[in-house]
Structure formats: C-alpha cells, structure tokens
Amino acid sequence: MENIFLLNATIVLENTLLQQGFVHIKGDKIESVGDMENCPSVSVDDRIIDCAGKQYVMPGMIDIHVHGAAGFDFMDGSQEAFEGIALALAKEGTTSFLATTITNPIEHTTGTLKNLELYYTQENGPGAAEMLGIHLEGPFINKQQKGAQPESAIIPPNVELFKEWQVLSGNSIKVITFAPELDAHFELLAELKETGVIASMGHTDASYDEVLTAVQHGVSHATHLFNGMKGMHHRDPGVAGGALIQDDVHVEIIPDGIHFHPDLLKMIVRMKGLEKVLVITDGMRAKGMPDGEYDLGGQQVTVHDGKCLLANGSLAGSIVTMNQARVNLAKWLNLSIHEQLQITSINQAKRLGQFDRKGSIQAGKDADIVVIGQDGVIELTICRGTVAYERNVVGD
Description:
By secondary structure, the chain is of the alpha/beta class. The chain has two domains: 3-58 and 360-390, Urease, subunit C, domain 1, CATH 2.30.40.10; 60-351, Metal-dependent hydrolases (TIM Barrel, Alpha-Beta Barrel), CATH 3.20.20. 26% of the residues lie in helices and 27% in strands. The chain is built from nine helices and 21 strands. An eight-stranded parallel beta sheet has the order 6-9-10-11-12-13-14-15. α5 packs across α6 and α8 crosses α9 (337-351). The mean pLDDT is 96.
C-alpha cells in the first residue's frame, strides 16, 4: 500500500485555506491533513510531492454530464473508450464523473448500458477518473428541443423500458434528462422519485405552468440551463425561468462562453445561490483533440475555434474542460477558490450522495486530489490514491 505525501502545500479545505500544509495519502484514502510542523515522518519508500510554489492543492472535480473526450464517446460502447475517457478526464482535474449517453436506437443504448455496467463493476479502478454512475440523456425528450439529439431515436417516456435499462446498468443510472410534459400522468417521474434517481428537465418544451407541476411531482434538476429548453418570455417564463425561480431545482451550467452569455451567470447565481449551481462540461469526443470533423450520436459535428456544431448550426456539446470552466467562472464572477470548489466538486458530491467520500480534502475520504500551478493549469491529478496525470511527463 503506497504512501504519498504532498508537502509545503496551500490546501483548499472545505471552509479554510491551509498554508504550508501536508496531505498524507495511504492506499486509496486520505490518511491525514495538517500543518507541516505536524507532518508524520516519511521514509525512503514513500513518494514525496513537493508543492512549494504551486497555487493550490484542491479536491478533484466532478463532472456529472460528459459524453466523451480524447476521441472517444461513451456510446462507442467499448471498454477501450470508457478507459480512454476516464484517463483523459484526469488530465483536466476531473476525478469522478457520470458517463452520459445520448439519444440512440433502443438496441444501441441497451448494449451501451450493458457494457457500462461491466466497466462500472469490474474495471473502474484507481489511477483514472472514477465512474460514479450514468446520466441517461434522452431518449425521452421533446423533438421541439432536440438540440443535437438524433430526432429519429426520440421516443415518449417509457417506464418499463427505463426499469429494464436500470437493471441492465446495475442500478447505476443516477440522473435522467427527459421532457416532463410528455410523461403521461407523471408515471416515469413517480418511478424516478421512488428509486432515488435525479429527475432532470432537459430537451423540453414545457410551459412555465407545466414546469411548476413537474417540480411538485419531483423534478429537481435542470440539464444545461438555457440550452435544449424553452427560454424565458415575459408572458411565459418557460423552462429556464421555472428552473431559476423554483428554489428546489439545481441547475447545470456549461461555462464555455458559447452556450450562453457569461453575464447571465450573474443572474443565475443571484437567483439560485452557489449551492444550487453545478458546473458541467457536456464534453464530446473532440475534447482534447484538434479541430475537425467528429461523430456525436451518429451525426457529424464540426469543431472549430471552440465551437461544436451540427450541419444545421445547432450546438453539439462542448470541448471545455472542467478546469477551464473553473478558471472562466473565477474570472467572470470573481469567485474565491472556495466558491470555485463548491460549484465544481462539493455540490456534485452532495447531489450524488457521495459527500462522505468525495468533494473535499479530509481524512478518511477518497484521495482524489489535484495540484494547480501558478498559471492555473493542472500540474498533477491523483485518483483514489494513484497518480493519474503529471504535467510535462512524456506521453502527456
């Protein structure tokens, strides 16, 4: 069981900043955290990481909505793709994620969920970002707000099909994006509420009144706010307005400067408070790759100058990293490092019921840690006690 010591570090704890501190990692857990003067003795067999001159040592980030990276997509359905994405996410400081699907024919989604269950239970080890479950985006969505979701595979909400998929996934579906206005008698929503799956309104054309009713029946989340939903109008606040006004609804945001105007973030934070905001990337397979042509759900996507577009001009995911999203938000909203931590890690861990082991640097929690350099980039990522990425190492 390897011992790792991060020394002389500026450590971002949940509520304080620990200067000249240490983190002792034993196996896959954080053994202890404290001031350097109280650091345990180290041996020649321990790995020492000197963090002097680094900006921060902070908890790994958690992306609850990501489709792919490094040329891979979860819908590829292969263990190679899943592993490739998990390793790529570690490079951007993401240490946990929800594998996110896209609307596809039923048989394709079924096969992907089976393979994700195998990865989740058998291959999901240290040294790469950890899959915490699945975000099922589609196919129970509204064609009027399909965005980059393939229209031919969109189907009405189907409780029995969802139950079948949940069993195939090993009960790993944690979030589902769907159009609640199409859920007859809220049958699917009732199933989600009973089984503890987060019900997220997305790719929905619901009216404001329909949103209010859906929230009363258990909707508590909004997928990529302002995108794939009816926008705000002064006579109908729509889905976006409903998500902002309803206190119980958490909202996902993609802070890439493309999916919505950065100044809207000020309104979002004022209305929701930071505790209900969750940063996501909605990353697709082109993340970390050169500009060019890529596939998303069987559709061709052109990636150029940071934009991912279908032929009809619809946005098709993003290539922003979690760390760049963090940096963007810090700049646009003048967020403190603790506020950055809250919306990239703490909120996600709490939302998924994982805060007992994720989201903060604390003895007994998983050793999911990133070291950030003075230039704001990721220097090193540790995933469950194993170094998954080191900047400037050959091959990275």
